[in-house]
User: What shape does this take?
Amino acid sequence: MQAAERCLRPQHSQHSAWVSRSCRDQQHRSCLLDKQTRQLRLQCTARNSVSPFQSSSKDVPARSNKAVQQQQQAQELQPGSSSWQQGFSRHKWQWRDSSINYVTAGCGKPVLLVHGFGASAGHYRRTIPHLAQNGFKVYAIDLVGFGASDKPAQQYTIELWAELLVDFMAEFMPETPAVLVGNSIGSLSCLTAAAAAPEGQLAGLVLLNCAGAMNNKGVINDWRIVLALPLLLLIDLLLRTPPIARALFDALAQPETISKVLGGIYVDKAAVDAELVDIILAPAFTPNALDVFVSVITGRCRRYRQHAAAAAAWCQHTRVPQCLNIAEHRGGQV
Assistant: This one.
C-alpha cells in the first residue's frame, strides 16, 4: 500500500532528475512561493526587463479611479494563487534566464499539458485531477510569457515554446517517454516540439483545437484571412504604438470581456465560471504582460504550409500515437 503511494518527483540536480518521494507528503512540501516572494519576483522582473510600453512616473498623469481599481485588482489576482491549485504541487524551474511555473499531480506515466494563448496551467484545472486519479503523473506548464512564468521583453515564437517543451521533457522525463497534450497554439508548440525531440522521448501526442500558426497572418490558405490581411496589418501598426496598445489591452483585460470571449469558445457555458475568468485575467496584471500580447499578435510566424509540411513529415515517420483535431471543450475540461 505504501509503495503505491510513492512516485517519481523532479529534482533540480545535475546528478539525479528523479527521486522517489511520497505523493501525499509532498503536497505540503511543494515549492510554493509565499506572497512576499512573488511580489519581490515581480518587482525584480519589472526592473530587469525593458519594455517600450512602460512609462516613467514623470510622463504619466495622475492615475484615474479606474487605474487605481486595476492596481488593487492586480494585487488580489496573483497568478497561481487561485484555489484550483489545492491538492496539486506547484514548482519553479529556471530555464535560460526565465523562471518557469508548473504544477504536478499523481503518479505513473508522465503527461505534459500545454495551454493556449492567454491561458496557463489553470486552464486544465479539471483535467489534471482526472488524469492523476487514473494512473498518470501530470505536469501542467505555464509557457514562458504566460501565467505565473516570467515574461521577458523578447520576441515570442512557436519555436521558442517548442524549445522550452523539449528542454522540460529532457529535464524531468529523461528516461520515461511522455504524452504531450496541447491546446490552440500550445498544440502547435507541442507538434513542433515533437518534431525536434530526440527519438524515444514521446509516448503520444494530443492536439486540441490546433492552431495553424501563432497568429492569423500565418494562415494564408484561408481566403477569409487573405481578405482580412490589410486589416490585420493595420492592427499590427496600431499595436506598435504604445498608448493605443495599452488602451486596447486594458479594455480586453476586464472580467466581462474575458467571460464573453470564453462563452463563445466553450460548449458548456456553465464551465465559464468566476474561477476560470480569474485564471485568465490574473496574468494580465504582471510585468511585461502587454509586451507578450503585442509580440504574439504582431509577430512574424512560419506559414501554415510550412507547419503542415513539417507535421506531415513527422507523422509519416513516427510511430508515436497521435490524437488530432478534438474540437470541443466539455465540462471545462480541455
Remarks:
- The first helix runs from residue 23 to 26.
- The CA atoms of residues 217 and 228 lie 9 Å apart.
